[in-house]
Amino acid sequence: MMKTTVVAGALLLALSPSVTAQIKVFSGVEDRKSASALYYTQENGFQTHGSVSITYGAPAWKKDYESEDMVNSLAGQRWRFGSGSWTTLDTSCDLEIGGVKVVAGSYYLVLELTKEKSINLIVLEQKPVRDKHIYAAMANMTKGGLSIPLQWTKDNDKVGNLEITLTPDSDKAEQLAFAVRWGNHKLTTDVHVEVAEGS
After folding, report:
1. CA–CA dist 122, 143 (Å, integer)
2. In sequence order, what are the residues at sequence separation of 6 or more whose Cβ sits closer than 8 angstroms to the Cβ of residue 118?
3. Separation of alpha carbons 132 and 125, rounded Å
4. Cβ neighbours of residue 119 closer than 8 Å, sequence gap 6 or more
5. Which residues in the chain show pLDDT less than 70?
6. Per-residue pLDDT tens for 65-108?
7. Is 9 inside a domain boundary?
8. How far is CA 170 from the centre of its chain?
9. CA 111, CA 26: separation in Å to the nearest integer?
């Protein structure tokens, strides 16, 4: 009787759905770009006073993206800012981006198209995202973060691949113009860098 029970139990276990899904892996090599600003002096030898950098994948623009239906489908959602892995902001200085304070550190960046058809830059703490194993393509699963409104305009000239720039003001180096260009779309805001006295 015991032998029959053991055999029946083993058969039931074999026919039951697997408790643990089979883990698969995707790997590859990414081409990444970076927009950066380094603050330094040279009067008493080379000294750094802070740095800001944004690292990102640069997807190609496609004509399909010009469809109004495509824009409408993204309303009210967050989406990956770039391609491949997370677009990251790394800053050794406190910043004000579009008037919003961002303390020195490393962050993930995503974009959000509101239901009112405005675009926000979302600055995310990295640890909560990592703890939930959220990949960049799953940006709409992220919660919270700093929300920074961006100016959204359209250019006559199109940019083939995503381009992010940080351009210093000619009179005030601590003022940066943040610009994103993709296709005929352009997103902009101002960045103020709280440059350190020295390091």
Report:
1. 10
2. 149, 150, 152
3. 12
4. 111, 112, 113, 149, 150, 152, 187
5. 1-19, 67, 198-199
6. 776 777 778 888 999 999 999 999 999 999 999 999 999 999 99
7. no
8. 28
9. 25
| Strand partners for 164 | 180
Distance of CA 65 to the CA centre of its chain: 19
Place of tokens 């902001």: 89
**Alpha helices, H only, the chain:** 2-15, 68-74, 126-131
- pTM over 0.70? The answer is yes
Q: How far apart are CA 142 and CA 136, in angstroms?
A: 9
The verdict on residue 65 lying in a domain is: yes
Strands 100-102 and 105-113 come out as: unpaired
Query: In 10 A of CB 34, how many CB atoms?
Result: 12
**Closest among 46, 39, 147, 127 to 91, alpha carbons compared:** 39
Q: Which residues lie below 8 Å from residue 30, measured CB to CB, with a gap of 6+?
A: 57, 83, 84, 85
The residue segments making up the domain with residue 133 are 31-193
